[in-house]
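Hey,
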Amino acid sequence: MRAIKTTLGMALLTFLLAGCQATTGKTAGQNVDDVTITASVKSQLVADKATNLFRVDVDTNKGVVYLNGTVESPAQKTRAEELARRVKGVTNVVNNIQVEKSKG
């Protein structure tokens, strides 16, 4: 009886975990890779003192980096994309950064 309960419990756990994976469409390894890529890109943006890119949000899905936020110049937008492309594991960059209009 105990073996049956254990087997049923394991089957249920497997079923539930498989359902969780299906919702994101990513494996656990892809999730770890994406988190690592996101952290690396953010680190590069913050470390780039010349361009002040701290208002850029970064998200990664299956190696594709999505950049969102606002910057003060087209050069900053371009620089953010360049920095993201340099990170190991990045397969593509979608640059949705908006350039703020000058207030003067």
